[in-house]
Design the sequence.
């Protein structure tokens, strides 16, 4: 019996179990996680690690522990989705820290936040002057949402009555020299059109292109492998190869 | 079909994992003629009680071979502490048999049986 072989098999079990469970739990981004979600994730990961390397006990009880944590997390997700009250109770709710430009000291005390913490959160949102803030709301994930006073909001094309083109998302046409025929078809284009466009940019083959995308306004973004940059900007402090 | 496979593959994978993890209790049972650990323990106990030390030595060797076969099967589903403890019992048993120490040999055999019972549970 070799320990390494047992660890190898257990690692496969915990890795794929974790992968399947993570897919089951959904696609919440790290930035959307509440503090409890964060701790929950760490615990589940820790149990998976124990399954792999703790050979002093069987994998099965740890796996049951992992399954239980995942099942409870899933249950919480379902409950918070179905019940608005439960969601508020379990995940917390947004809290107004600044209302009409006034700091809510009592709320700050309750949330255990110092003025310096609020200033840091504001700076993270690009606000350096409290006079500019109309409302600041602390979200359950710990991030601050800031609404500036109308006089400090940036001017939009609508304010200036400037006509704008409708925006949209771009579609990948080439990646790593490979043409996506399906995307071309969806955009009502064909390979001939693409090659014509590439030729207009002095490119003879798709294999010379690292990335190309078609924007909704019909313009094409093309990045070649050969970037033809004469003066390279180096922001590193060291000359070395790393 | 594709939708079915997307659900079926993870479920099948989890079922295989569960079977691997809980297979210890089944796989420790004798599957052939020479991997009967509790049977070998019983025979060795009888030989030790009769103080037939030559036969006890042969039985202990047979027990070791049976144990080595079982370990290969149950290693993925059993706690290593129990496996190590039982292996240590067998090593001490051989010493007790050489020393013709009846009480020592019986203690090791009974403890080995206890570890066997707990293995993969």
Sequence:
């Amino acid at each position: 019996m070799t320990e390494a072989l047992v660890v190898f098999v257990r690692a496969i079990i915990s890795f794929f179990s974790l992968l399947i469970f993570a897919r089951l739990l959904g696609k919440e981004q790290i930035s959307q996680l509440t503090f409890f979600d964060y701790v929950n994730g760490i615990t589940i990961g820790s149990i998976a690690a124990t399954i792999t390397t703790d050979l002093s006990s069987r994998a099965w009880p740890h796996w049951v522990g992992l399954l239980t944590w995942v099942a409870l997390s899933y249950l919480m997700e379902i409950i918070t989705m179905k019940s608005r009250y439960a969601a508020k109770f379990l995940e917390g709710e947004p809290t107004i820290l600044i209302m009409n430009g006034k700091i809510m000291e009592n709320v700050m005390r309750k949330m255990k936040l110092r003025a310096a913490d609020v200033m840091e959160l504001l700076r993270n949102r690009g606000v350096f002057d409290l006079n500019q803030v109309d409302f600041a709301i602390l979200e359950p994930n710990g991030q601050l949402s800031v609404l500036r006073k109308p006089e400090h909001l940036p001017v939009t094309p609508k304010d200036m009555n400037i006509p704008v083109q409708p925006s949209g998302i771009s579609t990948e046409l080439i990646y790593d020299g490979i043409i996506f025929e399906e995307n071309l078809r969806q955009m009502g284009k064909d390979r001939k059109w693409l090659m014509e466009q590439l030729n207009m940019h002095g490119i003879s083959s798709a294999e010379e292109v690292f990335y190309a995308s078609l924007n909704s306004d019909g313009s094409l973004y093309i990045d070649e492998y050969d970037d033809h940059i004469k003066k390279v900007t180096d922001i590193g402090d060291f000359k070395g190869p790393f | 079909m594709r939708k079915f496979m997307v659900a079926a593959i993870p479920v099948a994978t989890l079922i295989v994992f569960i079977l691997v993890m809980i297979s210890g209790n089944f796989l420790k049972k004798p599957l052939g003629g020479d991997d009967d650990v509790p049977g070998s323990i019983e025979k060795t106990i009888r030989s030790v009680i009769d103080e037939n030390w030559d036969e006890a030595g042969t039985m202990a060797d047979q027990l070791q071979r049976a144990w080595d076969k079982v370990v290969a099967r149950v290693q993925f589903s059993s706690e290593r502490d129990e496996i190590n403890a039982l292996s240590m019992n067998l090593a001490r048993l051989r010493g007790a048999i050489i020393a013709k120490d009846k009480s020592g040999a019986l203690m090791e055999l009974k403890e080995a049986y206890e570890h066997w019972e707990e293995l993969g549970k």
